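wait is this the right file?? whatever heres the structure
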């Protein structure tokens, strides 16, 4: 199937590992030139090299901190300077810390908000003008099922992911007339390094093994396995493709059926 992504330029934040790495790889396989960013530049360079070798596409690493407006401005400028413009933005960066809802410290929730909600907003502001100049574009915000499923020991995830979903719809309505389509993806429990770290932390809190936490997690997923980063990347590719030209302002779960709510 021809996606129409070949020759486009994509910017993927949080692109050095996990969902971001898989998404950058999938877009590069479709022929996009890709810029990836993260705070750790050594890992970022290795990831960019690996994706480029695997796909044959141009992949550039750019260090950026989502809490810094200056960094994000330089990120957009560097991408446009090296690759010409920006057609696709995938907001994926996250920096979260677990804490009980009744004890949530200011610095923890403000870090969540500054990295994810404000980081996504900053990136969107920077790329919209380039997309308008080109006559359109695609923005995909990766949020999380915390927006739908409350968690007493990680409320920051729910607060920020709900905010991302709300911002996605507002931005989608604002820029649709400019040909820019904006959507949000809620990944379920996804087998990434970060997820494995959260499993280890939960196991330590509950005094059980990580294997037991993994067993319980999978038992609550109807498809019988955790979501893979590639599952998220596949949806990103579709939403960026010509086949999704009438889809905007939507929040779509890729959770293996684990969500219990009915979303109308």
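ok assuming it is, sequence goes like this
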């Amino acid at each position: 199937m021809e996606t129409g992504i070949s020759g486009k330029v994509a910017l993927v934040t949080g692109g050095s590992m996990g969902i971001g790495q898989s998404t950058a790889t999938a877009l590069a396989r479709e022929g996009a030139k890709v810029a990836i960013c993260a705070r750790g530049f050594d890992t970022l360079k290795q990831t960019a090299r690996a994706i480029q070798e695997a796909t044959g596409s141009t992949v550039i690493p750019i260090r950026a901190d989502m809490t810094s407006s200056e960094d994000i401005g330089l990120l957009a400028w560097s991408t446009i300077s090296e690759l010409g413009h920006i057609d696709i933005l995938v907001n994926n960066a996250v920096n979260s810390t677990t804490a009980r809802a009744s004890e949530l410290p200011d610095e923890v929730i403000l870090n969540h908000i500054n990295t994810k909600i404000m980081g996504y907003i900053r990136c969107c502001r920077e790329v919209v003008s380039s997309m308008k100049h080109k006559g359109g574009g695609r923005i995909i915000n990766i949020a999380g099922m915390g927006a739908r499923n409350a968690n007493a020991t990680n409320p920051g995830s729910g607060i920020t992911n709900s905010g991302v979903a709300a911002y996605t719809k507002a931005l989608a309505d604002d820029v649709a007339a400019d040909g820019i389509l904006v959507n949000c993806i809620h990944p379920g429990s996804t087998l990434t390094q970060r997820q494995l770290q959260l499993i280890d932390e939960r196991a330590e809190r509950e005094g059980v093994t990580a294997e037991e936490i993994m067993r319980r997690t999978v038992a609550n997923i109807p498809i019988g396995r955790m979501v893979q980063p590639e599952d998220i990347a596949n949806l990103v590719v579709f939403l960026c493709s010509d086949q999704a030209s009438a889809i905007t302002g939507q929040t779509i779960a890729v959770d293996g059926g684990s969500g219990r709510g009915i979303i109308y």
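The mean pLDDT is 92. so i think its the right one actually
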